[in-house]
Amino acid sequence: MGLDMYAYTASRDGQYDDWWSGAELDPESNEFENSKLSKPVEISYWRKHPNLHGWMEQLWRKKNLDTASRDQSFNGIELELTREDIDLLEHHVVMGFLPETNGFFFGNSADEYYKEHDLEFVKRARADLFLGLRVFYNSSW
């Protein structure tokens, strides 16, 4: 087990979970398919990048001051990222401002290891937002 993190584009909130809940394994292709929904497109994946996850959690708590309880776990929660969020993330990655974050399944800080990957994600997210797509972050441990 460990911290798996991913970003994807989708046309609406909840599409990722809805796609997977209705997906079935095609025995011929050995791939999951859902004939009722288009699959969200994964644009980035990280394995054990705890400080990025901590940054996303802080953003989620800030955006949901009224609804997020203090002891609620930020796991499996979809977070939509705006152009402003992506700009701020880029600044924090470049400046080394991702918050130190610890967790049982999180691993050690991976900021330097993932720095170029994070900046590539920023570029991809900006392009997708420019095209009118919606960008989301989610995680699982």
Plain-language structure description:
Helix content is 39%, strand content 21%. It is built from four helices and six strands. It has a four-stranded antiparallel β-sheet with strand order 4-1-6-5. A two-stranded antiparallel ribbon has the order 2-3. Helix 3 (83-95) runs antiparallel to helix 4.
Compute the number of structural domains. Answer: 1
Unreliable sequence segments? none
Q: For the report, how would you describe the main beta sheet?
A: 4 strands, antiparallel
Mean pLDDT: 93
Task: Tell me the helix content.
Answer: 25-40%
Q: What is the rounded Rg?
A: 16 Å
Q: Main sheet: which strands, in order across?
A: 4-1-6-5
Task: Give the topology string: H per helix, E per strand.
Answer: EHEEEHEHHE
Given helix and strand content, the structural type is alpha+beta
- The N- to C-terminal Cα distance equals 6 Å
Shape: globular
Structure summary:
The chain is about 40% helix and about 20% strand.
Key descriptive features of the protein:
two-stranded antiparallel sheet, single chain, 4-stranded antiparallel sheet, alpha+beta, 6 strands
